[in-house]
Design brief:
single chain, 320 residues, alpha/beta, disordered C terminus
Length: 320
């Protein structure tokens, strides 16, 4: 009958619907499976060449030795034969035009990329081969895009681990955000939501800076730390950098602003993955003014900042 035909059609459609959905999503299923296989292969390679032995606490002496790096399938290296050295407590500003290789250099300095040639050494040990859990205790890192976790301000500064309150407060004071945190609804116990959605961009950056300074690291890397900061917060950042230097912490920061360079001892100008200029801050800035290169970030004239102590004058030993 007509009713039986209609009922049979409905039952057949219901029965075949899951199969049709699988066919419709088959491309996504295959792509997800391939992505999973690539991820598993990548993670299995990450442990290769890593040391399983913890090393003594370093002093912060950095040596970059003929460093080169090229991404797979890339004909031109992103980093080409870079060499320089930093003494404990020295502050280096890395500047240069877009696509100069600054972010790649930062990843190599923190050991998240394996160099194609050369090495980055912390107190003589290759940072890529350093045991990851041990290496993280000695290094602070502030990425360009700060990522915070769903938890309290206290937990995020403590790197989501167990920590003494005094250590967290010390990191916040060092970063210059202790008073800002106290003004939050529940202070250090304020829950910030997924990726810090309840904080402003500047607040996220300051909490990320405090996280980088947690645990008295000997080496701190800051990738454009002032991108979301106003004038007063930027001055706090400059003071924090100088306090780190006074403690003997080696600092490398990427900056596009002329003001932050004033807190540095040495300036490295990158161009096309190589060292264009390297030396004491005042000498490099004077050379940039003379060159007046159109693609070089504007670093002059630089206003004097009385609130920030002048650099100690420590010079980097550059290697050709």
């Amino acid at each position: 009958s007509a009713g039986t035909a209609i009922a049979g059609s409905i039952v057949m459609a219901r029965a075949l619907a899951p199969i049709e959905q699988v066919f419709g999503a088959w491309r996504n299923i295959v792509q997800a499976r391939q992505a999973w296989q690539r991820l598993q292969g990548f993670l299995s390679r990450q442990g290769m060449g890593r040391s399983d032995r913890a090393l003594p606490r370093p002093t912060g002496r950095i040596a970059v030795e003929q460093l080169s790096f090229a991404f797979p399938g890339q004909a031109r290296p992103s980093i080409r034969g870079m060499s320089f050295a930093l003494a404990p407590g020295e502050v280096l500003a890395v500047i240069g035009p877009s696509a100069a290789g600054k972010s790649t250099l930062i990843r190599l300095l923190t050991g998240t990329l394996q160099p194609s040639a050369g090495a980055v050494r912390l107190d003589g040990a290759d940072v890529f081969r350093w045991q990851r859990s041990d290496f993280g205790r000695h290094v602070g890192y502030l990425p360009q895009e700060v990522c915070l976790f769903d938890g309290t301000v206290f937990e995020n500064i403590a790197r989501m681990g167990e920590a003494r309150p005094d250590d967290v407060y010390e990191a916040a004071r060092l970063a210059g955000c202790h008073d800002m945190i106290l003004r939050l609804p529940q202070g250090y116990d304020t829950r910030i939501g997924d990726d810090g959605q309840h904080l402003s961009g500047g607040q996220k950056q300051m909490v990320g800076l405090a996280r980088a300074m947690f645990g008295q690291p000997v080496f701190v890397v800051l990738d454009e730390p002032n991108s979301n900061l106003d004038g007063d917060a930027e001055l706090d950042l400059m003071r924090a950098v100088r306090r780190l230097s006074d403690r003997g912490t080696t600092v490398v920061l990427v900056s596009h602003g002329p003001r932050l360079v004033q807190a540095c001892d040495t300036v490295l100008v990158m161009r096309e993955g190589a060292v264009s200029l390297l030396g004491p801050r005042d000498d490099v800035l004077a050379s940039l003014r003379q060159r007046n290169a159109p693609n070089t970030p504007a670093v002059a004239p630089v206003p004097s900042v009385a609130a920030v102590p002048e650099p100690s004058g420590k010079l980097m030993q550059a290697h050709a």
